[in-house]
Every structure is written in structure tokens, then in C-alpha cells.
């Protein structure tokens, strides 16, 4: 073992020197500290080296603007903490609100006695239906168009929401991407305003709702609150508006077209805007092909399906023609009898079956149009003030089977068939004759009254045997009919004959007969006098 220094400038360690092993160290000039001297070279050197390294790492120019990895990591951790904290704060602060009034409002459905529909009327054209009434193929069409993974994925799509929110904030327009749950929350709870605040609320409410309701409940609500165009809210109203049928009667192609409308109703209504046909058929094909892709529809069935052109949109409202008078009369009947209060009826959701019979209703309307209104002369002042109203009653039941309220409810709101300030005129004459037969009445001469009994039909003939104020009714057009039978007087509606007949029977008995046949006792002007006839 040699005592020579391994490195020039260094000497072998002197074991007699005090201190740790570094005591054998010498300076670069060949000197070394003597006994008791404090070594200083190691610490100074290390300090100098660190300073040099810092000088070498110091960034200059544009590099000084770039963040370090420590800064980036800190920003990521801070952002994550803010997101997590913001989520928990938002989740606890945003509650599920009550449903908005527009989402729960429905129309009332009015039906003929045979169950066919007369009309729908209400503040909103909607009839909510359970999911069980919506055919499976219609459900699949909607899922294919809007959210194919609805039943398997969470309530929200954060990525799509971030894109939509960013576009809204930066003014780049709105962007879709909401799940069916989010769309239902917008329709049912929030409204249609397009703001970042609404999107945030929609996010948290959707998550909460997904925990509280089943997928079927959410899907049913979505189908019943979505807008399909033509003033139709909900799948049932849409089926009536576009195909004139109930939702359970839709086929696959029709269901796919209604699903197409959800994306942009006005852009895909091919009857209101024929120029949209190409765009609508392409969107419809997209929905049908998506059903094939999800194995909800076979390729063979898809190949044999053609585009289902919808009906022309009705230009009239749900209360035009006689329909408005029917709605008014039914509402009056229900509320006056305490069956339902006016506010509850206004909120809608009722299916009301009437006693009206479609063939008789249509025949009544046609008869008035052909025999009365079509013959009016607009240049004749009297014709301009003519009003027609009436009802057809089934004698055995008292059911109203047909009704005519006026020329058109949208032009004349007063129902001539039910208004109480109109005298019934000659329509009361059958009650007078019925009272005569029922009571075995006799004339002033003691002759039993029959259809062949003769009366004096002279115009403005004073009534005999009446102890009240003198009464001498005029006949229509002041015609003198002379001696005339009750049968002929009924056919010609001769006032002079029936006023006398009412006195012969007894006005009080006529009144009781009418009440016994179903006429309300509080009917205005139902007074026992010759003027009843």
C-alpha cells in the first residue's frame, strides 16, 4: 500500500490531526490547515456551486412568461378543488322546484256519446297519457332521435353541457347535447330561457331527479311536456294534430316522424312548409336507421317503410263552429251542478263524454245551414238580426243529442241554445198540448180537446176565460186563419189558437207539465199565463 497521494494536490491523512476525516484535506495551493484550524472550503464550495447552478437555470426572454411545472400542478389541483367544492355547494343549494304552471296545464277532451272526439279545449293543447299507452316502437323512435343511451347512462352529459355553456357565454350561439332528463327538467321545472344560470340549475336538478324518479317516470314526463309544433304539447296532442288519431294507434313510421319534430318542429312540418320535405325526410330516415342500428327495427321492416305524410294543419281553432258552444254548455252544466268547480275545469285534464250523437249533431247543423242561414239576404235588415239556436232532446231519457248554438263560436260567443233571455216562442206549444191530453182538458164550450178540435185562428183575437190582464196575441205576419184544427194550428204555429188552448187547459197545469217533463222550475219567465204558448 503506497503512501503516495492518489490525486495531485492532496496528501495522506495525518491521523494525529484532530477532527473528522475531512481534517486531512488541503487547499488547492498545497497548504493545509494546522491543528485547531476550522475547515471552511467545503461549505463555501457548495454554496458557490449552488449559486452557479441557479445562474445557469435562470430563464430569460420569452421563457420567463411560461409557467413552471409547479405552477401548472398547483393550478390543476386548485381547479379540481374548486370544481369539487362547487359541485357539493351547488348540489345542496339547488333544490328541485315545483312544476311550472304551463307544464301541468292540459286541455279537456270532449267526446260524443260513441267515444269519438268532438274537440280539445283549454289554455294548453295537451292531454297527458301514461307511458303504457305509448307503443314501444314510438318510444324507441324518440330514444333513437334524442337519447339512445337514456336508460343506461347518467342523467347529465358534462362534456356537452360545458360546450353549450361556453358557446352561450362567448356568444357563439346555443348548442344542444342535453339528455332526455335535462330536457324534461327544462320543460317541467325551469322554462325555455337560454342562460348559463338555467343550465347550471338544470345540471343539479337533473342529477337529483335521476335519484328520486325512475327512468320510465322521467321518460313519460318528457313525452308529455315536449312541444311538437301545431300548438301541440305532448305526444298525444301531437298524434291528434298530425295524424288525427290517438297515440296508441300510431305506427312505426308515424312515431318516427313525431320524434323528428322534437328537434325543430317548424323546420320539419312538411305540410305547413312544403320546402322542408327534403330536410324532413332526411331527418326521418336518420331516426329510422338509428332504430335499426339499435336493433329496435329490422332491416326488412325498415326497407318496406315509406315517409308518412301528415295531415294538413287545421286552420280552425278547437272551438270554431259548433264546438265552442258545446264546450261552453258542458262547462256550464258541470259547474252549475257542483260536479267540478270552474278553476279545476280550467286547469284541464278531463275526458268528458257527452250525450251528443255525431250523426244527429251533423244533421242539425246541416239543416240550419241549408234551410235558414243560406237563405238569408244580407241586404234585408231583418235578416241581419236573425239568430238561430236550438237543441234536440230524446224524449225517453231527456238527453240532449244535438245542439245548435249559433253561426260560429269564434264570431258569436253567445250560445243561442242555452241563453235565458230569449223567449222560447213556439217551441213551448208542445208542452201546452201535452198538458191538455194529460189532464183531459176541455174547451170553453165543454168539448174534449183532441188534435181535431176546431179553434178560431183569427189574428189578435182576445183570449176568452182569462181573468188576468186582457191578452190578444198576433199571428205570424198578422194572418187570419179562421176556424182551424189543433193539428193544423200546431203545424202553422198559430198563436191565437194556442193562447186560447193554454187558458182552456189552465196555465198552472201547463207549467206543472213542463216541469214534470224536466224543465227547471226556476226557468226565467215560466209564469202561468196565456203567454206561455
What key attributes describe this structure?
single chain; Penicillin binding protein transpeptidase fold; 533 residues; mainly alpha
Please provide a written account of the structure:
- Residues 1-55 are annotated as: Disordered.
- In the N-terminal section; belongs to the glycosyltransferase 51 family. In the C-terminal section; belongs to the transpeptidase family.
- Residues 393-521 form the Penicillin-binding protein transpeptidase domain.
- The chain crosses the membrane at residues 72-94.
- With 533 residues, this protein is mainly alpha-helical.
- It has three domains: 101-106 and 120-297, Orthogonal Bundle (Penicillin binding protein transpeptidase fold), CATH 1.10.3810; 323-404, no CATH class; 425-532, Beta-lactamase (3-Layer(aba) Sandwich).
- It is built from 21 helices and seven strands.
- The protein has helices spanning 41-57, 69-93, 101-104, 136-146, 158-169, 180-190, 196-212, 215-225, 235-243, 252-261, 265-268, 277-293, 299-303, 323-336, 342-347, 358-371, 381-384, 429-439, 486-492, 495-505, 507-516; strands at residues 108-111, 117-121, 351-353, 390-393, 400-404, 454-456, 483-485.
- α4 packs parallel to α10 (252-261) and α18 runs parallel beside α20.
- The protein is elongated, with a radius of gyration of 46 Å.
- Mean pLDDT is 82; it is low at 16-23.
Amino acid at each position: 500500500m503506497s503512501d503516495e497521494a492518489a490525486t495531485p494536490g492532496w496528501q495522506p491523512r495525518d491521523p494525529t490531526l484532530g477532527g473528522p476525516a475531512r481534517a486531512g484535506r488541503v487547499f488547492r495551493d498545497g497548504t493545509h490547515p494546522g491543528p485547531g484550524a476550522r475547515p471552511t472550503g467545503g461549505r463555501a464550495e457548495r454554496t458557490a456551486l449552488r449559486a452557479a447552478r441557479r445562474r445557469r437555470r435562470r430563464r430569460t426572454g420569452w421563457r420567463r412568461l411560461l409557467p413552471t411545472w409547479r405552477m401548472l400542478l398547483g393550478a390543476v389541483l386548485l381547479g379540481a378543488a374548486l370544481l369539487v367544492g362547487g359541485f357539493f355547494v351547488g348540489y345542496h343549494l339547488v333544490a328541485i322546484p315545483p312544476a311550472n304552471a304551463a307544464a301541468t296545464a292540459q286541455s279537456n277532451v270532449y267526446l260524443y256519446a260513441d267515444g269519438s272526439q268532438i274537440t280539445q279545449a283549454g289554455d294548453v293543447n295537451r292531454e297527458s297519457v301514461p307511458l303504457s299507452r305509448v307503443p314501444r316502437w314510438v318510444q324507441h323512435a324518440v330514444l333513437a332521435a334524442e337519447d339512445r343511451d337514456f336508460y343506461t347512462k347518467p342523467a347529465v352529459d358534462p362534456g356537452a353541457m360545458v360546450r353549450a355553456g361556453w358557446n352561450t357565454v362567448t356568444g357563439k350561439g346555443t348548442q344542444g347535447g342535453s339528455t332526455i332528463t335535462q330536457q324534461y327538467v327544462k320543460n317541467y321545472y325551469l322554462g325555455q330561457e337560454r342562460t348559463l344560470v338555467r343550465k347550471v340549475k338544470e345540471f343539479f336538478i337533473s342529477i337529483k331527479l335521476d335519484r328520486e324518479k325512475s327512468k320510465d317516470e322521467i321518460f313519460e314526463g318528457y313525452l308529455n311536456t315536449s312541444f311538437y309544433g301545431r300548438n301541440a304539447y305532448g305526444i298525444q296532442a301531437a298524434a291528434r294534430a298530425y295524424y288525427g288519431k290517438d297515440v296508441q294507434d300510431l305506427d312505426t313510421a308515424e312515431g318516427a316522424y313525431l320524434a323528428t319534430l322534437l328537434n325543430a318542429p317548424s323546420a320539419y312540418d312538411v305540410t305547413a312548409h312544403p320546402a322542408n320535405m327534403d330536410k324532413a325526410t332526411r331527418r326521418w330516415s336518420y331516426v329510422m336507421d338509428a332504430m335499426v342500428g339499435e336493433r329496435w327495427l329490422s332491416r326488412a321492416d325498415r326497407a318496406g317503410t315509406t315517409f308518412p305524410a301528415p295531415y294538413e294543419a287545421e286552420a280552425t281553432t278547437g272551438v270554431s263552429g259548433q264546438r265552442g258552444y258545446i264546450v261552453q254548455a258542458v262547462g256550464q252544466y258541470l259547474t252549475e251542478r257542483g260536479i267540478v268547480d270552474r278553476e279545476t275545469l280550467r286547469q284541464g285534464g278531463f275526458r268528458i263524454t257527452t250525450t251528443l250523437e255525431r250523426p244527429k249533431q251533423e244533421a242539425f247543423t246541416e239543416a240550419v245551414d241549408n234551410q235558414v242561414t243560406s237563405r238569408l239576404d244580407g241586404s234585408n235588415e231583418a235578416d241581419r238580426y236573425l239568430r238561430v239556436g236550438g237543441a234536440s232532446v230524446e224524449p225517453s231519457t231527456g238527453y240532449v243529442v244535438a245542439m245548435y248554438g249559433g253561426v260560429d263560436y269564434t264570431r258569436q260567443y253567445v250560445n243561442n241554445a242555452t241563453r235565458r233571455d230569449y223567449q222560447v216562442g213556439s217551441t213551448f206549444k208542445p208542452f201546452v198540448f201535452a198538458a191538455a191530453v194529460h189532464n183531459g182538458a176541455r174547451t170553453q164550450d165543454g168539448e174534449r180537446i183532441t188534435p181535431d178540435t176546431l179553434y178560431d185562428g183569427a189574428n189578435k183575437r182576445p183570449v176568452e176565460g182569462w181573468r188576468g190582464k186582457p191578452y190578444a196575441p198576433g199571428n205570424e205576419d198578422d194572418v187570419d186563419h179562421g176556424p182551424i184544427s189543433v193539428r193544423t194550428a200546431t203545424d202553422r204555429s198559430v198563436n191565437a189558437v194556442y193562447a186560447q188552448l193554454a187558458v182552456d187547459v189552465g196555465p198552472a197545469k201547463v207549467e206543472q207539465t213542463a216541469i214534470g217533463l224536466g224543465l227547471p222550475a226556476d226557468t226565467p219567465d215560466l209564469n202561468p199565463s196565456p203567454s206561455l204558448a
